Amino acid sequence: MRKFSLKRKLIRIIRIIDMRKGNDQTDVQSTIRTVRESIQIKGANIWILLCGSLLASIGLDTNSMILLISAMLISPLMTPILGIGIFYYTRDMVNLNLALKKLSIALGVTIATSFIYFLITPLGELTPEISARVRPTLVDALVALIGGVSGIISITRKESSTVLPGVAVAITLMPPLCVIGFGLANMDWMIVFGSTYLFFINVTIICFVATFIIRWLDFPVLKKRSRKNKKINFQFKLAGMILLLIPCAYWSMEVLSFKNEHKELQSFIDHEIAPRAEVIDWKITKNDSIHEAEIFISGTLIPKDSLGPLYAAFDRLKLNDLQLKITQPDVQNEISKVQVEVDSIRKLIPKEEDLIAEVKIHFKQVETIRKLSNDPDTLVYGVKWNGWDALVTNRKKKMEEITSLLKSRTGKMVILKELKG
Q1: Into which CATH architecture does domain 20-244 fall?
Q2: What does pTM read for this prediction?
Q3: Cα–Cα distance, 177 to 88 (Å, whole number)
């Protein structure tokens, strides 16, 4: 009795989720007609495609997500890709060839537009939005899978749906094509490969899931295949899909490894470094010659005899051959540097007796010169002449020359006064 009840409930659930049931049922003929009409890339669609590719290129160049979303919303790429999946399953070779041709035109127009834009833009730097589309992961493949299911269901409904624009945003078909244009403009073939791979994954998965959904929806097939042919075809597609996702799986492992490194390093800092000193920053550097995690210390310094246990504790983490580097200020070294600079400055400032001797050497008429104030900003000197005979006409000029000499030697404001008597 219990088995019968569970079976009945299971059948009821299957009927509820069956897309062939309900008020908004599948309209096969209308779907094929709509897709056939939508894959035309000419006239207004060309202009929409140009605007979309320009918006996406500017969004990538300025790192603007708003512009990228706008470009994806107006992009007419989604329907031709769904059409390829539909016509492939229904064996409609005429419309399949047409969809492939129109999609190729759309790709050419988009890549050419972005290529020209990135050739003439005054910016043209590698932004985070561009970097995010050159190393796709399994998450991107999953998004394409879910988006493909949503898109094909949306396009086969009798009533119009708002799902398709949302799917176009989620799958991001336009930005990878514009990243290809960026890579070509900068002759960066790794970027070209990565963005091409991302776009190819999206298109392949969308077409792959589209064939399964329309098979479930009982779309008519123009030329039926034998069961053996279907089995071979399915095995071929499945093997191709697995091979296609290998780079995605590799990059996914890299992302997980990167996140694990950061998590482990942060935990090490919290438990081992933070109780001993103030950590102001840390970073992981990886290139051909350096694999290190550098931690910057400020405030209270870690004693040298405590550094050894810290390095040993870090080595036990075994974070992909990362080497620990603790950078903290050398106080004694800094004090020594400052002292050297002070001494060098002092050497540049002449002694008072040397300064007075120099004035008397250059000006024979000076009998006495001495400092009258100790103001650090303004020096006041008094001068007494050894006689009036030589200074009847040029006394004022001589005082200006002495003042100029004192200014040049001390680097300060100088006031020169005559001493009487």
Answers
A1: Up-down Bundle (1.20)
A2: 0.68
A3: 24
